[in-house]
Target: AlgX/AlgJ SGNH hydrolase-like domain-containing protein
Amino acid sequence: MIRIFKRLPGVIFMVLLLGLAGKEALSHQRTYSPVEKRELQTRPEISITKVLDGRFQKKYESYLRDQFPGRDHWVSFQTDMELFMGKNEIHNVYIGKNHYLLEHYTEKEFDPQQISKNLQALEKFVGKAKQNADVHVMMVPTKSWILREKLPAFAPHYKEQKFYDALQQKLEKEDVLISVEPVLDAHKEEEIYYRTDHHWTTLGAWYAYEQYTKAVGGDLQRAQGKKKFRCISKDFYGTTYAKINYARQADKIEIYEPADKLRVVYNMGEKKTKTLYDVSFLKTADQYSVFTGGNQAVLEITGGIKNGKTLLLIKDSFANSILPFLAEDYEKLVVVDLRQLNVSGDRLLEMFSPTDILILYNSAQFAQDKEFEIKCN
Model:
């Protein structure tokens, strides 16, 4: 009897292991996690070459982790246990004040070598573009930097000012930089960033749009009249929430609805609409994609003021919520995400002949981006 009890844990373990293996073999593979908002590793193909160089083992380990039964519940359970043990950082996410979830940025996200390459490419592209267009650059600070006072006490975080100093030094002669850090810092007690997502809110985007209008000598009174939003969701949980499957308070999504009737062409004719919003995403876990239906390769927007101007906006996802403000100020607005498009910066200048150019990125995403360096150098 004693022997049986000694072997019981091993037997139970083997039964569980075989059960999970059987479930894994029979179950349908998930390709996307709506909770974590990322692609999941599917069952990798095996080959002698991949086994010998270790690629198969690495992918299979990721596959087992991503396809583990009840994964979403286990992620939530792990977060609850770590919070119970007094931790305030889980999977590089800080549980901050006022229910804010703040990402922990390190040197890994702000790699000096990649930043140097990107800034070199940025300087080179700006120099070319300025020959025929009015050029501006806007780098949006991370939520963790602007709202660093909401971080837990003594929480280490990357001193983002180093990035802005390098940016300022590189573009000082060009005089194209629009610094939005001061205005965002001045309004940091307002809801300028989502609690559960790394993006700025429509209000945060509007403050940046106001700064852009000042920089280009636009109609400031007209810009200030756009500070009127409509709430379309009160149960938004974003990308930072997805990392730990935990939040104390949902976010709301507000939008600005342009008065002008816009015409939007997606990806060189793939789709045509009269709005920059896709409200069908409000019924999914990816509600942020209500802005332009997610990241698109190319958007061509017309219907704004008839001033003969074309703005070329080279951007990441932070620009999606600022587009409705900009769209009314130009006869044509061309929006390009280089991560989705295999076209060089020089070719974009030839294709669209812009009178104005705005390069808008989140600082952390620009620091890590490798497409910009390749395509704009």
Remarks:
- The two ends are 74 Å apart (CA to CA).
- The chain is about 40% helix and 15% strand.
- Residues 27-67 form one domain.
- The chain has two domains: 27-67, 94-375.
